[in-house]
Amino acid sequence: MVLQPSERHYRDWSHRRLGPWCSPTGSPAPLSCETGCGEGSWILVCRLLVPTQVSLLSMEEDIDTRKINNSFLRDHSYATEADIISTVEFNHTGELLATGDKGGRVVIFQREQESKNQVHRRGEYNVYSTFQSHEPEFDYLKSLEIEEKINKIRWLPQQNAAYFLLSTNDKTVKLWKVSERDKRPEGYNLKDEEGRLRDPATITTLRVPVLRPMDLMVEATPRRVFANAHTYHINSISVNSDYETYMSADDLRINLWNFEITNQSFNIVDIKPANMEELTEVITAAEFHPHHCNTFVYSSSKGTIRLCDMRASALCDRHTKFFEEPEDPSNRSFFSEIISSISDVKFSHSGRYIMTRDYLTVKVWDLNMENRPIETYQVHDYLRSKLCSLYENDCIFDKFECVWNGSDSVIMTGSYNNFFRMFDRNTKRDVTLEASRENSKPRAILKPRKVCVGGKRRKDEISVDSLDFSKKILHTAWHPSENIIAVAATNNLYIFQDKVN
Amino acid sequence: MLSKGLKRKREEEEEEEEEEEKEALAVDTWWLDSDHPAVAQAPPAVASSSLFDLSVLKLHHSLRQSEPDLRHLVLVVNTLRRIQASMVPTAALPPVPSLPAAPGMADSLLASSDAALSASMASLLEDLSHIEGLSQAPQPLAEEGPQGRPIGGAPPSLGSLDLLDPATGCLLDDGLEGLFEDIDTSMYDSELWAPASEGLKPGPEDGSGKEDTPELKETELKDTELDYLMDVLVGTQALERPPGPGR
């Protein structure tokens, strides 16, 4: 598909729906696959790239999109830091998939509609809308730059034809409305078709303007801006099940907002000590219970989770429940606290469990048992003996996210070397897969990967020392009802699907 | 190792262990294992102090950011405390002034820069709360500790890190001044850099003697922190300063 001149600048892309421009070979990967069961077999549906790169190149040379994808994809120098994907989120139906990046942009993909003629295109996601959500700002009081990087995106449940989402950077949360326009009024009395005013003296008859179909246009407009409520960096936002409120959490405080009110928010958690010298713990993530609008959890850098009930008091500094696993004395080291720091917390869809991610493990907790998790999964335990090096290069501070599948039976999280891991809670089986263009051919089933931890390395295995720690999968998302996953690897978004019968 | 019941010479044993180490994963926490032959040869303080150095570097780097990542900062500081605690196992006992067993200017510098660190760390965190006070009403204090639950033994606050030699646990006396006689200190005699101003937290109890010793690393760090504080509080120079490196 060749980009037309009017389509070159990425800002125009919100006004056009574009076809797929993702697959390097020019044809989308079919969904059928031959074998595989157990954990399921995963195949690559499509790999999507941030639009800017493609448009920038086409401005310089008229090249077919396929050639663009083939040529510069292998050349890392084209990918700029602004294109690094920093958050991925499906909406509640799975029809839309939103990504935010370091450059403050939001790109929304929409699932291709199923049709009899092109069955193989079902499950593919195409660009639906692109907009600049946040711009870099300068705080004049503190003489500091505020990054435009999108930390989190959360969708609101759909209540009318338009889609709403919250996007946030370090300081400001914004509510965006994404709506379609496919009709326009025609037949004005005072204006002609080009919009020029007509001389009223020439009008002899009156007519009623009618709505006529037009090319579909998708527009994103900021509806609310929730600013100036956070001194520290926002790490989480969570929409409440009442759909009227949401919370935003920074390192030391959590605020509750009403969607309609932007000039005030309620502070519901404050762990800032009176004397900052006594600061030893920060908030790392927070989320509302999926069904109980009064309940939420927040995690800390010390590996603890607190469940709070907003009915108990206005300021939820006293927790209702406190989840912490006692430290294993045999694994104690200087880095115990750092690796216990929780980087993500997620309620299960049922609301009965919470899942937490720390540096080396994913843990599932039952809300009724506070003293230890009910399940612990090792993500990459082979890194335990490498902690000093990982501390040196700061990788030990990486914040990995974790996700549940729609039925809460499988959990997924990322690792290094573009690996990501899935754990089946029922069968207790796990799999390691890789999101990389070298290993992802269309029609091929993703091959499970294995890391060799010593001794003889088999042919397919990769040794720990060969892992690329610059290729980290921090952000993943799972479709709410189907086995479709989105995996963000730097500036690439991979969409994988389970086998289809 | 000792297979087939054969007795081996010590050199052979060490060679074998080295080979095994190369094959297997490098275990970075070997210094914690006192049975390891390599540990028996080198004092544990050396390995801990290299980690200490690394953590100090990280703390410096974090503090120098235009807006430090609070989580990173807190984790590094807590790790630094752990390392220091392990290097000074007898901190609870009253310090006995004696010659340090592992002398070295490095240890002295570490100790004195540690005082500066605690001062600068304290001042920066204090500064964050001051700035917030300008734009927000003070938050209500929680009844319990900041963690929302009663804390048994509260961890020592940053401001009270004692100035102890990391290697031996002895208080460093004022004899250090003689080490720095050759260094030109005229730059640091100006009143502008008097530590009593700008609400800086005083260092440890015997820190006043340390502040007179013009150790270059220490004053360089103080310069940066004081500079930052001055700019923020004065406010007029805020726009002229180029923004610091991004996170």
TrEMBL record, chain A:
The keyword Methyltransferase does not apply. One of its GO terms (molecular function) is protein phosphatase regulator activity. Keywords: Repeat, WD repeat. It comes from the Eukaryota. GO terms for cellular component: protein phosphatase type 2A complex. Belongs to the phosphatase 2A regulatory subunit B family. This is Serine/threonine-protein phosphatase 2A 55 kDa regulatory subunit B. The lineage of its organism: Eukaryota, Metazoa, Chordata, Craniata, Vertebrata.
From TrEMBL, chain B:
PROSITE patterns: SERTA. Residues 1-25, 138-160, 195-224 are annotated as: Disordered. Residues 44-91 form the SERTA domain. This is SERTA domain containing 1. Residues 12-22 have a biased composition (Acidic residues). Residues 203-224 have a biased composition (Basic and acidic residues). One of its GO terms (cellular component) is nucleus. It comes from Myotis myotis. InterPro entries: E2F-SERTA_domain_protein, SERTA_dom.
